[in-house]
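Predict the 3D structure for this chain.
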Amino acid sequence: MTEDKPKEIKEKDLPWFYRLILKIPGTEFLENAGGVFWAILMPIFLVAEFFFSLFLLVAFPFPINIILVSVIPAITLALFVKISLKRFINWWNANFGESRFNWNMEKTLDEYIAILQRKRGKKSIEEKS
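Done. Predicted structure below.
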């Protein structure tokens, strides 16, 4: 093994296949979508896509219907793979990347004590009046 500890993943260091996946456009909304999208809207979309695929299978002749039916699942899979890859890279960099934040516990503790003293001073002034 050439390295002892894991390092941050950079897009330029990825193989060409992963860089190609990351260039899929139109996923900005999906990358930031929360539970409502994935738990409610995505299942509704998949059920609607199922019925639409059944319609395409019946409405068109053999070679065309298979191609038309495979387009929507292929696009959905590509978007899902890109979002999963992007989330994995973000998770990896958050856990194993270089920390850009320096913890200064003494400064933070001093600020906290100053806030508590100000708060205590306000309470004593209010009690006197």
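The chain is about 75% helix and 0% strand.
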